[in-house]
Design brief:
Layout: E1 2-4, E2 31-32, E3 41-43, H1 46-61, H2 66-71, H3 75-103, E4 108-114, E5 117-122, H4 129-156, H5 166-189, H6 197-210, H7 213-239, H8 245-278, H9 284-287, E6 291-294, H10 300-310, E7 314-318, E8 324-328, H11 330-335, E9 350-352, E10 358-360, H12 365-374, E11 379-383, E12 389-394, H13 395-404
Parallel strand pairs: 1-5, 3-4, 6-7, 10-11
Antiparallel strand pairs: 2-3, 4-5, 7-8, 8-9, 11-12
């Protein structure tokens, strides 16, 4: 399975819901495998679990076959080779997504190969339906190209018989398995529902017609949920009346796993899209608390009294020339017992202004979030473009507006 991840989840990725108030997203674990096209490739430890499963499962399928009898335990090495070829195909699928995204100027953080396939961590939404379509369709298109190429090789190989060499039989198996797997990956990912690539194609189409990206996301997410239900009930219907109860249960369990996976991915895609729809409404001026300037040696009780009179919710420490030097930390004030307020100077509860902790009132949307991520802090000084103090922006207020609207 494969999925692009422009801040949305998928069958092979998790949603990128970066808190607006700061901090960089952790890089996560995994084995670095190079930087083709400048894109870091990471193999998650979970990949080794699925590789082991493929090795054991397909190795056992060779039992009592012409190739299996010749290979003995070597059949597991052939099965592992298929696992490697499969995930190389997934990597190329993801590279196709990422290279097209970079062509449009969309930053790609990395590609992760793991248990359920791969994910391209594209850090910004496409800006148009055309970009969305191109990025989404690139992966399945390459999978179909790989399927066709390996099918052509398979057709070119000579027919096998009992006298054929073991090397030829192994080559036939690996080539057949690889073109079949790429065909399945391409077809599955083009199913029209988020979080699959076909869902993003559907999203681009609805977006193009309605001129609203959110409408496209809602349509594709609900189609994904419907697809999950169809997958589950289709497996149950197909398995009814089968004589082998074990195979029947196995099929239903896998279908349930895939269905839940699609349902959760579609739901996460919808949730993240709703959050991102709120980003343009995040405006510094509207979220900033009114503040009063005070000297560092002023008692906390007096500073709070002045703030109450002025209707302010924040206090900024200024020097003798009136230049801001620190912000009184709200959490520190809350933790100070009221009886100590007259004896505590505000300077002792203030956080010095560092580079990046001063914002201007004209910041908003993505620019505001980028500024908060660049310099994580609980509060920020907000000034007018001319430099005069406007107030204090609390990171908690931005987070609340982002999560709850």
């Amino acid at each position: 399975m494969s999925d692009t991840n422009p801040n949305e989840g998928g069958p092979s990725g998790k949603p990128d819901q970066t808190p607006p108030a700061g901090g960089t997203r952790p890089s996560g674990g995994g084995l670095a495998m190079g930087h083709p096209f400048g894109i870091p490739i990471v193999v998650s430890p979970t990949w080794f679990l699925i590789a082991a499963f493929i090795t054991l499962y397909f190795g056992d399928q060779f039992n009592h076959t012409r190739l299996g009898d010749r290979l003995g335990d070597g059949r597991y090495l052939v099965a592992f080779s298929f696992a490697v070829l499969l995930y190389l195909s997934v990597l190329l699928h993801e590279l196709a997504h990422s290279v097209v995204a970079k062509h449009f100027g969309l930053p790609v953080r990395r590609i992760v190969i793991y248990f359920l396939g791969g994910v391209s961590e594209i850090e910004r939404e496409p800006e148009s339906p055309g970009q969305e379509f191109a990025v989404a369709v690139a992966g399945p298109a390459l999978s179909f190209v790989l399927a066709g190429a390996f099918w052509g090789i398979w057709e070119a190989l000579p027919a096998t018989s009992d006298q054929s060499s073991t090397a030829l039989l192994v080559a036939m198996y690996l080539v057949f398995a690889t073109w079949s797997a790429n065909l399945v990956v391409g077809v599955f990912n083009m199913l029209p529902g988020l979080p699959l690539d076909g869902g993003r194609v559907l999203r681009s189409a609805v977006w193009a017609v309605t001129k609203k990206a959110m409408t496209g996301t809602v349509a594709a997410a609900w189609t994904g949920r419907a697809l999950a239900v169809v997958v589950l009930f289709a497996s149950i219907w197909q398995s009814r009346g089968q004589a082998d109860a074990g195979a029947d249960l196995y099929t239903i369990m896998w279908a349930a796993f895939i269905a839940s996976f699609i349902w959760i991915g579609a739901s996460q895609s919808l949730t993240v899209a709703k959050l991102r729809d709120r980003v343009p409404r995040l405006q510094t001026r509207a979220l900033t608390r009114r503040a009063i300037p005070v000297s560092a040696d002023l008692p906390l009780s007096e500073a709070l009294r002045r703030a109450a009179v002025a209707g302010a919710r924040a206090v900024v420490v200024v020097d003798h020339d009136g230049r801001p030097t620190a912000i009184v930390n709200e959490a520190s004030v809350t933790a100070t017992p009221p009886e100590r307020h007259p004896w505590i100077q505000v300077g002792s509860l203030a956080r010095s202004l560092r580079p990046g902790m001063t914002l201007t009132t004209d910041l908003g949307g993505e620019r505001l979030l980028a500024a908060l991520r660049a310099a994580p802090a609980p509060e920020y000084l907000v000034t007018e473009p001319g430099g005069s103090i406007y107030g204090v922006l609390a990171a908690a207020d931005v987070e609340h507006a982002f999560l709850h609207g």
